[in-house]
Write a structure and sequence with these properties.
Layout (H helix, E strand, L loop, with lengths): L11 E7 L5 E7 L22 H7 L7 E6 L13 E6 L3 H14 L5 E7 L8 H5 L5 E7 L16 H7 L8 E7 H13 L7 E6 L5
Parallel strand pairs: 4-5, 4-7, 5-6, 7-8
Antiparallel strand pairs: 1-2, 1-3
């Protein structure tokens, strides 16, 4: 996108659509990749009956224009110069900004150890499934299925627990930077579990989303 100023992994943009009659609506979407010149990548979850996501995923064509505002956000970000261990906790589409951090780490050749605990309803709901199937060196990925797990999967379906974070996360004594993103209820519970395990609240950064009409 000409004139794009660049961004940090974890930031988002506001996308505004305006109809011919002047009606406009806006939604926020996380940037899905690291800064790459004038290239901007978004991952959009289609919301049935929504105002914005169906247009972006089914109607919009090459050459169509939308209004973007951003990049937005300065707290929920990861910078490649950081060397602190990182624990990423994602719920569903909340993996998008965390994927931007994973990709930024790869692009920068960072050796900061990353762990991703990815909670999703079933295997068919996974974002970036192929990319995360073969993670980079120094990146560990654990999936937690809440409703339906693949055949032979050791963990029974169920919500994220303290045991999941203790076994697949990063011990609090390592003082990792924790990034949690997903629906509001998921984020609040995951942050609560991290604190209960001994993680410093000041090291837990959260980003949440809720129903907006798509």
């Amino acid at each position: 996108m000409p004139g794009w100023p660049g961004h940090l992994a974890g930031q988002h943009v506001d996308v505004r659509l305006t109809a011919e009659d002047g009606y406009s609506t806006q939604r926020s979407y996380s940037l899905a990749g690291p800064s790459d010149g004038e290239h901007v990548e978004l991952t959009v979850q289609r919301v049935p009956g929504g105002e914005v996501s169906p247009y972006l995923t089914e109607v919009m064509e090459v050459g169509d224009q939308v209004e973007l505002r951003g990049p937005v956000g300065g707290w929920f970000v990861w910078e490649p110069a950081a060397k602190t261990p990182v624990l990423l906790v994602a719920g569903g589409a909340g993996v998008v900004p965390l994927m931007a951090m994973i990709r930024a780490r790869r692009t920068a050749g960072s050796r900061a150890p990353f762990r991703l605990v990815y909670s999703l309803r079933d295997p068919g709901q996974a974002y970036y499934a192929d990319e995360l199937r073969h993670p980079d060196p120094g990146l560990d990925v654990t999936r937690v299925y809440t409703r339906t797990a693949p055949d032979g999967f050791a963990r029974r379906p169920g919500r994220l627990t303290a045991a999941d974070l203790a076994g697949s996360g990063r011990p609090p004594e390592y003082e990792p930077d924790c990034y949690v993103c997903g629906p509001t209820g998921f984020v609040e519970k995951a942050a609560e579990l991290l604190v209960s395990l001994g993680h410093e609240p000041g090291r837990i950064r959260t980003e949440r989303f809720g129903p907006t009409g798509g």
